[in-house]
Fold this sequence. Notes:
alpha/beta
Amino acid sequence: xxxYKAEFRCISGCTERYPLDEIxxxxxxxxxxxxxHHDMEKLAAKSAAEWKEIFDKRTGTSQWPYGSGVWSKKxxxxxxxxxxxxxSMYEGNTNLFWAKRFGAMFGMNDLWVKMCGNSHTGSxxxxxxxxLVSMVNEMISKGKKIKAVxxxxxxxxxxxxxxxxxxxxxxxIVFLPNNKISTAQLVQPMSNNSIVISMDTDFDGCMKIVQExxxxxxxxxxxxxNSLRIEGQKxxxxxxxQQFDWEVPxxxxxxxxxxxxxxxxxxxxxxxxxxxxIKKKPRIVLAQAEKAxxxxxxxxxxxxxxxxxxxxxxxASAIQIGDPVSVxxxxxxxxxxxxxxxxxxxxxxxxxxxxxxxxGMYCCPHTGVALAVMIKLLEKxxxxxxxxxxxISTAHGLKFSEFKVGYHEKNLLxxxxxxxxxxxxxxxxxxxxxxxxxxxLSARK
Length: 445
């Protein structure tokens, strides 16, 4: 039995602390968000080499629950939880894809894409949801009266919550903005037996309602303002460094909407740095859609006077958020990691995704935002072609088939589909087929 400990603390620096099995999302003293703090002194009793050996030995194992990319780092995530209460589908351990051909188009030989969408529900949200639902399962096992778990979502969070709650046998409720998510994203919570509430508002409106619904603590809040989610998502940082044989990339680019993912990345890197597993920090780049860009607008003004925006309709629907809950954490992280915030237009994100697809990827629109931002920063010489760069792909492209079809049919509003590739319609005539093939091959040289 280990003696590692973790607790909630207020991010504003006041003295409030809460156990992880307490139903609390904000500091009761000042109203700020909370974050999980670990007893770093106890963790530091093991050397960096010992932690690396432990994590490396657990990777891919069938020993419960360590085969999960999240729970292989259990001591760094939720050390005190009973392993029998962990709800895991062995999430994580996703491919670090060497984007060789795509990178070569821009003179880069060290471009990688962390394929977080290669997960049970098709997005990186699984990494945080395994932790949150596991903690709810633990609380219920100890007698806490929790009727259900709920979230507001632009699609991926609801899918992850629905699946993990169904696996645990806990009722789930998801609040979705009507007609603002893909069909695949809508059908996931429906299939996993969630109570699906579709509202005539945007994500920010859904977020307001879910916070009110969860006020009495009988329904547990599963959005990223709950810092248990961040503890799972920080495993992305640790996992990618582990996959690079414990070498830190120079630049990490991630699309952002509600902005919990930024602080999650930072949290993982800071733990590794403090415990001696790494010797430097990467530069973190936040990529926003131009139509939902509140942090970009604050960044170009030195983070002065952050103001929410009313987001426009963007193809990157999962980050169509104008009033991000985790903005304070994100700004703090970006300042600590020499961060950059950049935006991408609809045309830029769609064409970047399609260009990457031509080299073997299958990008969601949010990954398209990150790739488009990378291209812009190379052009502006804010990042170097020689940097070891990792783009976080947050979801699987199959969840956004309407986006793909619309692009190739050239009917996406505001997008000039430079890389459209429609089927060649022909009769069953060998000569005509041969002629068409030669023409296409010639055009693609």
